[in-house]
Amino acid sequence: MALHLSNARRAEVLTQALPYIQKYYNKVVVIKYGGNAMINEKLKQQVMEDVVLLFLVGVKVILVHGGGPEITDMLKKVGKKSVFIDGLRVTDRETAEIVQMVLAGKVNKSLVNLLEIKGGKAVGISGVDGRLIEAKPKNDQLGFVGEITSVNIEPITDLLSHGYIPVVSTVGCDKEGNIYNVNADTAAAYIAGAMKAESLISMTDIAGILKDKDDPTSLIPCVDIKKAVELFEDGTISGGMIPKVECCIDAIHRGVKKVIIMDGRVPHSLLIETLTDEGAGTMVIEDSDKVEY
């Protein structure tokens, strides 16, 4: 059922967003976007609309994306089976080339194109461009899965200074020219930290940190690092959430003010988080005693 707002109600909604627009004006917000949140085309359109709206009201948005499902599909087409260890894709040299082709090519340019169609100005780059993400092998078992050794934010700051939305695909390289498949959550944390971002928003396919993983209504709206460690220890944070929350904590240690894990499948969750007092998902902060709500 369509929701019809009167002009007066529309004006009221915009007025209520004003303090949040002022809060984020000229601030850096890194959005990590990927996985299942990218599969639904209608949702993808809405996410890009939200990104453009934030960009147009003066937020310095950096979009960092993955694309695991698209990589899996392409590997199937060429007859390669996807193998994962601890949630990371085992990547031989051929797979690394396919990762580069899919992420830096198809996925990156489709997102740039969508942002432009929606009225934004965007430029797509990969971690190879300007040596944005340098990496080394994470371990022998994983092959060309990269552990980040350094981040050069100059390509990003140049794009921001010229009024563009940087769209970053998480492919890394080393000084010998080897290409690495870099985890998008990790890359977003490093980039957000290097940019001293106001916030890092991780759009996933779950509501956030749940007290009961099978009950979406048991969302924990805010945790600090101390509480997160307790949730690791008692098993509340488990499975695929472990590396995601570890990346949140890493981003905080690197200078990001707050990190939000939220369900990217919820329509306009990005705007709900940034421009309303409702918020979305779980906010991870350094110390709950020092936070301003």
Structure, explained:
By secondary structure, the protein is α/β, with parallel strands linked by helices. It has a single domain, classed as Acetylglutamate kinase-like (Carbamate kinase, 3-Layer(aba) Sandwich). It contains nine helices and 14 strands. The strands form four sheets. It has an eight-stranded mixed beta sheet with strand order 5-8-2-1-11-13-14-12, with helices on both faces. It has a two-stranded antiparallel ribbon with strand order 3-4. A two-stranded antiparallel sheet has the order 6-7. Helix 2 (41-56) links the parallel strand 1 (28-33) and strand 2 (60-65). The chain is globular and about 60 Å long. The relative contact order is 0.15. The mean pLDDT is 90.
Global mean pLDDT: 90
Counting DSSP E segments of at least 2 residues, the number of strands comes to 14
Q: Element order, helices and strands?
A: HEHEHEEHEEEHEEEHEEHHEHE
Total of helices: 9
Which word captures the global form?
globular
Give the second-level CATH assignment, the architecture: 3-Layer(aba) Sandwich
Features of this protein?
293 residues, 9 helices
In short:
The protein contains nine helices and 14 strands.
